[in-house]
Amino acid sequence: MPNRKKQDFPLSEIRRYLEPGPVVLVSSRWEDRTNIMTMGWHMMLGFSPALFACYIWGENYSFDLIRRSRECAINLPTSDLVDTVAAIGNCSGADGIDKFEKFGLTAQPAEKIRAPLIAQCHANFECKLVDDRQIDRYGLFIWEVVKAHVAASPKRPKTLHYRGDAEFMVSGPNLSRLNRFKPENL
Amino acid sequence: MPNRKKQDFPLSEIRRYLEPGPVVLVSSRWEDRTNIMTMGWHMMLGFSPALFACYIWGENYSFDLIRRSRECAINLPTSDLVDTVAAIGNCSGADGIDKFEKFGLTAQPAEKIRAPLIAQCHANFECKLVDDRQIDRYGLFIWEVVKAHVAASPKRPKTLHYRGDAEFMVSGPNLSRLNRFKPENL
Q1: How far is A125 from A9, CA to CA, in rounded Å?
Q2: Would the CB atoms of B181 and A166 count as touching at under 8 Å?
């Protein structure tokens, strides 16, 4: 799996990748420990600042790393990584596994956080926690995305969308309806 | 557009339709007013009870109807409804439009809420508000889905996933990786 060359991407436009609802890989670091988890329960919550919310189960090994460091990276895998995504979701960092090493993924330094980025993903979003008050009740983390890196092509990567029951939907054709939108609604 | 015959669907399995991140149509009723809005910022937040969170902009006409009634229905449109979805997102109930009538949609009575269901959608999820404390700060509504109705077929409907810029991604092929999942992770 090649590393993907990425460019800075405007934070106000990250909905292009996150709003369609892909499975993402969440990478984190706390002290000398790093981990990667899969995540499908997330949403955009604002354009500017670029807010993003996600659910993380308290039993996940990543939960503590993310809660303590108050940082994470949201990495967008493409469909060629489906076996890696499934495998990452079916093993735990609690078992002493280094998931970067085990799955042949490259940890790249981020710019604004200490958590590593996954080089093989199509896009990486660096996140800082802005609200921890819904974690105890709902497992809900509210993030500000502070830096976005996106591969220049393809413009519409094939992403994975989890249905449960070990089924992934792969993103399909694009339909543009530009003539039906008011400019202020784009 | 035909009405779709639906069956009761287990609440603990609604992630199958909501987790992949489709655009949904939110229908609401307050006193004698009903409305429909499009929504792409939402997430699953729990299996049992079936919790679901979404963002609603305070300037949307539906915001007041939903906040006051503390109910809504989440309706899942399929890709054949793309023009209707785009049109619903580009007009406002504040202009006195009855969106059911304007777009030839059938309002069906729900079982547990007063908001109408959209007969032409593949699935309808009846929601009651369980937490309003994040509305003022984030526009975030936290719902319990109290009843689910889903068309028996197709099992994997073609859904719409919004990318911004008037572009919809249509759900594509299914990849099953059953042999890579631990039973407890399904």
Answers
A1: 9
A2: yes
A contacts of B51 (beta carbons < 8 Å):
138
Contact between A45 and B140 using a beta-carbon 8 Å cutoff: yes
ipTM: 0.96
Query: Does residue B178 lie within any of the structural domains?
Result: no
Chain B closest-CA separation from residue A112 CA (Å): 24
Compute the distance between CA of residue B169 and CA of residue B172 in angstroms, rounded to an integer. 9
In a domain, A59, yes or no: yes
- CB–CB of A53 and B140 under 8 A? yes
What six digits make up the tokens of A19?
């709003």
Q: Tell which of B42, B45, B51 to mutate to test the A interface (max A CBs under 10 Å).
A: B45
Peptide bond before residue B49 is cis, with ω within 30 degrees of 0? yes
Helix (H) or strand (E) holding A148: strand A140-151
Q: What values do phi and psi take at B62, rounded to 5?
A: -65, -25
Determine, yes or no, domain membership for B179.
no
Q: How near does any CA of chain B get to the CA of A65, in Å?
A: 21
What pLDDT, in 10s, does the model give residues B1-27? 677 899 999 999 999 999 999 999 999
Identify which of A21, A41, A44 has the shortest CB distance to residue B45: A41
- pLDDT value at position A95? 87
Which range of residues forms the domain containing residue A39? Answer: 6-185
Q: Supply B158's token pair.
A: 């073609």
Is-contact A114 A127, C-beta < 8 A? no
Interface A-B, measured as beta-carbon pairs within 8 A, has a size of: 184
Q: Amino acid identity, residue A116?
A: P
Reported confidence tier of residue B40, pLDDT bands at 50, 70, 90: very high
CATH of the domain at B25: 2.30.110.10
Do B168 and A175 make contact, defined as CB atoms within 8 angstroms? yes
Location of structure tokens 């593949």: B122
Phi-psi group of B164: left, alpha or beta (phi > 0 → left; psi -120 to 50 → alpha; rest → beta): left
Number of domains in chain A: 1
Residue A1 lies in a domain: no
Distances (CA, A) of A104 to A60, A62, A100, B8, B32: 22, 19, 6, 44, 59
Please state whether the predicted TM-score (pTM) of the whole model is above 0.95. yes
